[in-house]
Amino acid sequence: MVVCGLACWRCRWLLPLLLGLAIIMGIIALAGRGWLESESEPYVQQASLWESCTRGEDDLNWSCQSLMDYGWGRAAAATYLVGFVILVICFALAVIAFSIEILRFNFVRGIGGLLFVVAAFQIIGLVIYPVKFVEEIPLTGDNMFSWAYGFGWASTVVVIGCAFFFCCLPNWEDEVLGNIKPTYYYSSPERAPYLN
């Protein structure tokens, strides 16, 4: 029978796997055109992290404007992108850390600290974008921050969760490495007659 608790050596790949999932969601957020979209028909507005596009109700072609022309657009893209790059570095470090037979727990805690930095950068980018977008870009119709923006937040939430686990993992060092023996508790000799 395979028993795998929260902090066991056999489950060491769970945290790098979650970081990989955060990277995939970050790629979707960086490449997706659904940061802002029209809420209902006619779909006349859509935006990504990089550009804002509009079209007329009867027009099939999108007219796009780069958000890199704005200081806040460059700031939002840069902070999210820096966070993403550090996330990829943390993923590589986690794979290396968990591949080594003798796990260095201080190294793992450092990865957790870097993940908090990733979360801070991503949150800054995810907050700058909607606040300044609504202030400075003329919106047409009813709009909503959509799926790609949601993937950005999902990636950030996974990173925050992994950061806590990476920072707390050294507290379970003996359990993870299997250095402790199980303890059996018996309340009375009558309940365990076979020990006599």
From TrEMBL:
The keyword Transmembrane applies. One of its GO terms (biological process) is cell-cell adhesion. The chain crosses the membrane at residues 12-32, 77-98, 110-131, 151-172. It is found in: Cell junction, Desmosome; Cell membrane; Cytoplasm. Keywords: Apoptosis, Cell adhesion, Cell junction, Cell membrane, Cytoplasm, Membrane, Transmembrane, Transmembrane helix. GO terms for cellular component: cytoplasm; desmosome; plasma membrane. InterPro entries: P53_induced (IPR015664), PMP22/EMP/MP20/Claudin (IPR004031). Pfam families: PMP22_Claudin. Belongs to the TMEM47 family. PANTHER family: P53 APOPTOSIS EFFECTOR RELATED TO PMP-22 (PTHR14399:SF4), P53-INDUCED PROTEIN RELATED (PTHR14399). This is p53 apoptosis effector related to PMP-22. It comes from Psilopogon haemacephalus. The lineage of its organism: Eukaryota, Metazoa, Chordata, Craniata, Vertebrata. The gene is Perp_0.
